[in-house]
C-alpha cells in the first residue's frame, strides 16, 4: 500500500513542478494538495498496521 501512496506523492510533486514551471498557480497548489493527501493516507495506513500488530500481540498474551 505504501508504494501506491509513494507514487501518488511523486505524481503530486510532478504536478506541482509543472504548475510552477508554467506559472499555473492552480496546478501548483493541486500538486501540493495531492502530496499532503498521499502523506496523510500513508500515515493512516501505517497507524492501522501498528494497531493491528498491537492487537495481535495482545491476543498472543491472552493465550498464554
Structure description:
The model has no long low-confidence stretch (mean pLDDT 92). The chain has 64 residues and is mainly alpha-helical. It is built from 2 helices and no strands. Helix 1 (2-22) runs antiparallel to helix 2 (25-63). Helices cover 94% and strands 0% of the residues. It is rod-shaped.
Strand-helix topology:
Elements: H1 2-22, H2 25-63
Helix pairs in contact: 1-2
Q: What would a concise description of this structure say?
A:
This protein has 64 residues and is mostly helical. Helix content is 94%, strand content 0%. It has helices at 2-22, 25-63.
Summary tags:
single chain; 64 residues; mainly alpha; 2 helices
Major sheet summary line: none
Assign an overall shape: rod-shaped
* Average pLDDT taken over every residue: 92
N-to-C CA distance: 33 Å
Structural class: mainly alpha
Q: SSE order, as H and E?
A: HH
Topology, number of strands? 0
Estimate the helix proportion, in percent: over 70%
Low-pLDDT residue intervals, each spanning 5 or more residues: none
Strand content: under 5%
Number of helices: 2
Radius of gyration of CA atoms, rounded to a whole number: 18 Å
Amino acid at each position: 500500500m505504501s508504494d501506491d501512496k509513494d507514487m501518488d506523492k511523486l505524481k503530486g510533486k510532478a504536478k506541482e513542478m509543472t504548475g510552477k514551471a508554467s506559472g499555473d498557480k492552480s496546478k501548483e497548489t493541486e500538486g501540493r494538495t495531492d502530496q499532503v493527501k498521499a502523506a496523510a493516507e500513508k500515515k493512516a495506513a501505517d497507524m492501522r498496521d501498528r494497531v493491528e500488530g498491537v492487537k495481535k500481540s495482545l491476543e498472543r498474551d491472552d493465550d498464554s
